[in-house]
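Teaching assistant's notes for section 4

Start the section by putting this record on the projector. Ask students to predict, before seeing the second block, whether Oxidoreductase will look compact or extended. Collect guesses on the board.
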Amino acid sequence: MSHKKVAVEVSRIEQLTPTIKLFEFTPIGAEPLPPFSAGSHITVDMSDELSRSYSLINAPMSPKTYEIAVLLDVQSKGGSAYMHSGITVGTQLTVSEAANFFPLAQEQDSKHILIAGGIGITPFMSYLYELELLGADFELHYCFRDAANAAFIDELKARIGDKLFTYEQSADQRLDVAGLIAKNAGNSHVYVCGPQPLIDDVVANGNNVLGEERTHYELFGEAQSSGGAFEVHFQRSGFSLDVGENMSILQAIEADSRIKVECLCRNGVCGTCETTILEGEADHRDSYLDDEEQEAQETMMVCVSRAKGKRIVLDL
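Reveal the predicted structure now:
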């Protein structure tokens, strides 16, 4: 699956916190940026081997720029380190057109409960524009380690006032997820983006109280793919790679760099890295294929899924 690329220039960089920078991209040439919907992200191409996806934080309607906010991972050897140290105003890059795997339910009569953890606040920045247009009832619950490293707090206080609820871990403030969802049982939708334990808590309570169709989540960062080591053979390219216990097939491909596989999400949700299986069986760990498709063992998502045995052959 291929996505159209857009040539852009970095037109503004703003240090939001000691660890988070805002990047503004302006299109190169006369063609305007395509509009997007709340919750969308773009993939930033940093080199032939390196690309990462980031949520768009600006207004979705008729955008003149794309804006993202990037948290510096102190252990990063790739995306966030490159964005923080290798990008300056004037840098030219390519980005994908916006894609959305975390859309806002377009229900004006429902209440929308937004739950963000840390840098997981980013998709909800664009949500606010659509919620305001809908005139829908909503609350934003924002959890973070400490206020000094939490982006957008002042902006959110000024913009949404008493619809904002903050929880600072260093001040022993904790969000009662179960209590919040129970209090809003009924005609509500709950959305979460943040660290995995927060997502797991919200999804478990949301599915139980509101149902799966009213519980929405987005993973950020790269999903871990761990298990037994195995060999993957690329039939069309004519070579094999060893995939280690704590490495995904996609990571092995990128480290080798002889072939390129596009992947927008790196979490098994978007389907862009879906690859045909020629021999062997996959240990499916994605959220894209349904149960029947996974049982058919015809394709797999190389960003998260692994081989069941010691060897698998793919049509790459």
